Amino acid sequence: MKRMKWLAAAMALLLALGLVSCGSVSNISADSSSAEKTSVTSAAADTVEYGYSEAYDVAETEESDTAESTESLADSYDPSQVKLIYTAWVDVEVLDFDAAVSGLEALVDELGGYCESSYLSNYSSGRYASYTVRVPQEQYRAFLDAWSESDNCHLLSREEDVDDVGTEYFDLETRLNTLNTKMERLQALLAQAEEMADIIAIESEISDTEYEIEYYTSQLNRYDSLINYSTVYLTIDEVIELTEDEEQSLGARLLQNLRWGAESFVDGLEEFAVWLARNLIQLIITVIVAAVFVVIVVRMCRKRKRTGKRAENDQTSPTKPESAENETKTKE
């Protein structure tokens, strides 16, 4: 009986010790799991804060910032701040071509503009010039008014176009401001990055952003050039007499168009004569080569025909002696 009591007491003591040890182990495991959770949470917080490893996505963050900044800037757009591009097409005829050209150059210099391109040609009926002129926008109207009716100049046609690019200009500015903000954030992240994979990813994003910034900057510069300097396409035609604006009779119009047609025909003949003189040697050589080629082809064709006839004669000639021998045998 005593042994049974001691055995029961020992088992009770072991059970108590087991419960105590299990409680301590569970407390330790709970503490360790909570510590792991805390470390993981802090690591995730560091990842979000510094933008490292795979948890960081530059595109999503910047797209949301871009959308927010675009919306805030769109609210501040003022439709009254227009951006106008002036373009004009002017055709004039003049009596003194040299005076008109020198006057054009002096006028452009006086108004602070420049000549972007020019083309001059000389015909028998007169000379012709075409210019692309860029003048400051504030001098645009003064330049057009200078080509009004005068003793030497007659305005044939004048067409103007005004294009408001305010919305497109503001949109480009908004995109450029957003990209500059994005570039600043990327450069800050690059300065804090330590992992090579993070550095390569951020540098790639910086390269793409720089390309977009250069593109939108060039577009804005182009708009600034077109806005600040208006474009005028001017043609100057030298004539013997200026065209009258009054309505002409049918006979006068027919005679005038007949004269213009004759002048164009004569100009065409002169241009053809010049072209023929410039390419005469090449034409002669080409004709000689073509003639030799034709002669060779004709001789080859004739030779083939003769060869064919000889072959036919050779095939038919053996049958004639046999028939002759048969006839002689029958006679005998």
Instruction: Name the strands of the widest sheet in spatial order.
Output: 2-3-5-1-4
Radius of gyration: 48 Å
Determine the strand fraction and express it as a percent band: 15-25%
Write down how many β-strands occur, each being a DSSP E stretch of 2 or more residues.
5
What gross morphology would you assign? Answer: flat
Largest sheet: 5 strands, mixed
Task: Give start-end ranges of low-pLDDT stretches.
Answer: 1-8, 12-56, 69-74
Helix content: 55-70%
Structure description:
With 332 residues, this protein is an alpha+beta fold. The protein has helices at 2-50, 58-75, 97-111, 140-145, 166-192, 196-228, 250-316, 319-331; strands at residues 84-94, 114-122, 127-136, 153-164, 229-238. Strands 2-3-5-1-4 form a five-stranded mixed sheet. Strand 2 (114-122) and strand 3 (127-136) form a beta hairpin. Helix 2 (58-75) runs antiparallel to helix 5 (166-192). The longest helix has 67 residues, at 250-316. It is flat and about 105 Å long. The model is unreliable at 1-8, 12-56 and 69-74 (pLDDT under 50).
Topology:
Blueprint: H1 2-50, H2 58-75, E1 84-94, H3 97-111, E2 114-122, E3 127-136, H4 140-145, E4 153-164, H5 166-192, H6 196-228, E5 229-238, H7 250-316, H8 319-331
Parallel strand pairs: 1-5
Antiparallel strand pairs: 1-4, 2-3, 3-5
Helix pairs in contact: 2-5, 5-6
Descriptive labels:
332 residues, alpha+beta, 8 helices, disordered N terminus
